[in-house]
Queue: 4 jobs
Job 1
Amino acid sequence: MSDTKTATAGQSLLPTYGRYPIALVKGEGSYLWDDQGKRYLDFMSGIAVTNLGHAPQKVKEALIKQLDELWHTSNLFRIPNQEEAAQLITENSSGDAVFFCNSGAEANEAAIKLARRYQQKIANNGRYEIITFEQSFHGRTLATLTATGQEKVKEGFAPLPEGFKYIPFNDIRAVEAAISDKTAAIMLELVQAEGGIIAADPQFVKDLKALCEAQGILLIIDEIQTGIGRTGKLFAHEHYGVEPDIFTLAKGLGSGFPVGATVAKEKLREAFGPGSHGSTFGGTPIATAAVKATLEQIVEEKLSERAAAAGEYLTAELRSKLADLPFVQGVRGLGLLVGIVCAGPVADIVTAAQERGLLVITAGPNVVRLLPNLLVTNEEMDTAVAILAELLAQA
């Protein structure tokens, strides 16, 4: 290498992230440590990923065991871990068949492809259009950023794939007006996390499901951030009493190991026959060892129920401690997906919290998002609330 081509390690990365000047090097439970030895209370969970906390023992043991045995083969062969992980998902959900991939964006991409292929190859109606909602977020691949109802993620990527419509969230009349003979599916998050922690109205979801059933439209629910116990149920759609035709998972599914899944009803199985879709690294022995261990602990220890109780406690404490602060407009969310809605931008509050040893994240410019792990203690929540109350009072 020539003397002119030298760079720091950080400069060797494409600048796709606005990074904080913190290098985190160790994690355990609800805490992280940086390379200077400073400890942080983690209320981000890697953006709803480390739902069991950092380095959970059961998952760690499963990964170590698998690393000693087999890392990778190919999906041209049976992968017992993959089959068992899929069975865990179907036994604990309304889904019947699972496709494993590497991320949430890939899971949503597969859901879009599955919906179109079902309509065109099985239902034989030629439908391809997907209706999504304003302020939604579905991923960064070309199709999933097109499905996303936020213009900021699309800038500079034209031309975008055709076949997507965007309508206001929680507006059933807008859905009815958008449906045409081309409509293959409707795709939504039941809590718009990136969009500001906005939950779907229960009557809207009920009406949406009825509309889909009446018109042969598939209902896709994006559970990337809301799944795996985060909202107080294993999957958020359980709160609403609906069974989607397709739902997608990632983030907390592997406790930090990269893995995603697309889960479908039985009638869609035939649409994804051999050769229709695939992934080199989807559902490897290592990835599905993490999935199995994660789901087993959440189900066996009833951690979804624990998250529901913790979410009630956290929300109540926030509302009590922040009630008299003029900068705070409200607290909303579901389970341990919680947002503090503020009267102005909150980026400086996030940075100030880091200085105080608390990690939180935004959800849009004016919302502080809290995502503690499902095993968070009342003491840890009290600490976070106290720090945020002080910072928000100063705002």
Note: The CA atoms of residues 103 and 260 lie 4 Å apart.
Job 2
Amino acid sequence: MPDLLDLGPAARRVSALLEGVDDGELGRPTPCEYDVATLLDHLDGLALAFTLAARKSDDPALAAPPQPSDAGLSPGWRERIPQRLDALAEAWRSPEAWTGEATAGGVTMPAEIAGVVALDEIVLHGWDLARATGQPYEVDPEALTIVHRFVEESAAPEQAEAREGLFGPPLPVAADAPPARPGRRARRALSLLA
């Protein structure tokens, strides 16, 4: 993990995507098997959860993974999600965020791993949102390298139990495939970067 990884660029890119989401697209499917509204509710919840995790909060909301739904996407999401993504990036700028342990989604892990998981969630779900809404999506090279390494480690055979329910088995990817162009169902199959 690089020193004080900045989640700001990835958060800003996802926030920019929100401006291009039309209300008529909320029911569209995404590569991560949510529809757009459910994905947005998930982004809203994970931004808050990983902000609280960086602050080492003991908020009861961190005890279990949020259950996103299209019905959970409350009015004001266009303003709230970018604010929460900004707060997430700001919280992880603190050196203390990267020390000790952090809890998000009912999982306690080393804080330096939690920060990388937060980046992974933002980057991969940003791609999901862009694909579902037909928008271009660029990931800065540093973030892509870190997410690639994280997903590659998660794809290792000895990690099969740890990724249960999060990702499916790794799928082969062409050697010349661009790293930021995952195939269909990339989130479930780890084909993004494996």
Note: The longest helix spans residues 111-133.
Job 3
Amino acid sequence: MSNKMINSNNAPKAIGPYSHSVRTGDLLYISGQIPVVPATGEVAGDTFKSQTEQSMKNILAILEEVGLNFDNVVKTNIFITDMSKFSDVNEVYSTFFKDYFPARACVQVSALPKNVLVEIEAVASFN
């Protein structure tokens, strides 16, 4: 089985030596997406809500690159810099899923790239 790197012009460029995602078999592993607006390269606002929304939009752009959507997501990991904002993140995150919520972890970290507040990674299935 070979692995295939998949990048999207509709997601922000990687800020390091990694791909937006890698497909292996029937799984797509999406790298952590920070809330950078692809068109401007700027961070989307300064709130947990605005940054969660942009991170999820970036994930959606990568999913759509291969014909998937949030119904295909089976696992996410969310990294936030302040656990007291957990409910703000949940409020926005929940709007991206229709009929079910994938497995998930959410952890507080001390810092994220570009000093953002949120980073989200995902695993999606082609099945």
Note: Strands lie at 3-6, 21-24, 27-33, 73-80, 103-108, 118-125.
Job 4
Amino acid sequence: MRLRFKATHVVLAMLCVMYFITYIDRVNIGTAASEIQKELHLSNTQLGFVFSAFAYPYLLFQVFGGWVGDHFGPRKTLFWCGLIWALSTIGTGFVTTLPMLFVARFALGFGEGATFPTATRAMQYWTPSSSRGFAQGITHAFSRLGNSVTPPLVAVLMAWLTWRGSFVVLGVVSLIWGVVWVSYFRNEPRDHRHITEDELATLPPRPTGVKPPVPWGPLLSRMWPVTLTYFCYGWGLWLYLNWLPLFFKNSFGLDLKHSALFSSGVFFAGVIGDSIGGVISDALLKRTGSVRFARLSVVVTGFVGALASLLPILFVHDMTVVALSLSAGFFFSELMIGPMWSVPMDIAPRYSGTASGIMNMGSAGAAIASPLVAGLVIDVTGNWYLPFIMLIGVLLVGAVSAFMMHPELPFTENEVRMPTGQPATAA
């Protein structure tokens, strides 16, 4: 008897692979940074500028990219995004100057800008409502798995093919994913030849009629607390992703191989956090029936746990203690990914791509500021611990702002003003 995989499971698996690949292509530069810095003669501030290059178009294309995913569908949008980020990754292997490196990383951000909002759009109709936390948690767990394997993977590729060859190989892998995605995925689950009626019965119903234009004003007023909260999360994420390998190398005098292994261990803690955070949120939703409690309890626990985990580095600079503290901090930070990415679907199911793009602007903004601030602080003070100490304050702000989110209140057409300027009446 031939083994058949459910189409919904295959789609989720393909999105997991996409998250895995995109994060490898984002953070590979962190491992290769020491060689790139030496070859191109870059200061830490210049390196921080390169790290942030990804985030400028990534920020701009969060909302626009989410709109593109909503308008054109995830099938074509993710294919073209994959093509762009693959070519930019390959192109990174051929740069010879700081401006060229900046442009290559800028193009990567352009290609990846619409990916996560569009993936959320795909999950909106390919995932049962009761499994949203799990779907968001498992896909982001694969992104953190990408973080975890990247340092040793890139270190091996660099030893074999130089840092330039490593970028070319990783870019080719991204091209392959794009071809497979556009060949298999369909925007409408019902149009997929392998989906069953039993699977369709578990999926959320599609809205009927002509979709109205995005109600930007009301949607932004509902999403800004989510964006602020995600900015605070993103500040720590991009600090870890960009600077962690160099932190271990420069703070403890480790070589590339050992700094990669320590970084990999810290990032693997995030894989566990991503995996269970969404599951816990879904379980709390099922047990209590409260969307607000299910989402906020995990998010606030993540912020407070991450903050508390980093406190030991204020007093102890032993390598083992520091590595364990950073690992625990990353674990708690990643607990909140599943519930956070469920919130846009909870608040605005009909505009989930756009809403998730608005939220992810927070992380994109942090991706610009966090690496730049860290590089500048390190150059000015020579203290590699200070950026992580500053993170403690940002996490505290995130824990407070989380209480301003209201995922329990779905965005309805009652909040949208009609063309006459009058509020719509309740159904």
Note: DSSP finds 15 helices and no strands in the chain.
